[in-house]
Amino acid sequence: xxxxxxxxxxxxxxxxxxxxxxxxxxxxxxxxxxxxxxxxxxxxxxxxxxxxxxxxxxxxxxxxxxxxxxxxxxxxxxxxxxxxxxxxxxxxxxxxxxxxxxxxxxxxxxxxxxxxxxxxxxxxxxxxxxxxxxxxxxxxxxxxxxxxxxxxxxxxxxxxxxxxxxxxxxxxxxxxxxxxxxxxxxxxxxx
Length: 191
Prior knowledge:
Blueprint: E1 4-10, H1 17-29, E2 34-39, H2 54-65, E3 71-73, H3 86-96, E4 101-107, H4 108-111, H5 120-126, E5 128-132, E6 145-148, H6 157-165, H7 176-185
Parallel strand pairs: 1-2, 1-4, 2-3, 4-5, 5-6
């Protein structure tokens, strides 16, 4: 049997402490070997906000997870052209690493949308969904979702981008290395 791997996908625009807390809680509560942070290429349902490139988002993830032995970058979606569907990405991962047991981490807000996901039936056969609680959302789904209770930290990438654009503080919201990188690269409208 291979490793038990968590996959945390997102635009990570920018990555913040909420992402790190989710990954760490799932890693330890489910006894996984690692959690991979998988920055989205071009998500089919979301226009990327801000002026960041895929390369900059990748760099921010690397800076955010630096020093955590259980966290790894998974660049598979950044290497693909065109829109990325989770099913196609997971298929590639399973073909590349057939022995690994993949746990796909989703927020409580996404659980109710699972029936609308592209090729959800096939996808649910390939991976174990892991849901993390979000206030105000029911964790009910016709698909098998393993729930993990996490401390509620209401931080969003939108909040951070808005703070930076208006000259506000993001101290303790993003890792210091990420904050430094945002400043150096003059991202999100303030340098």
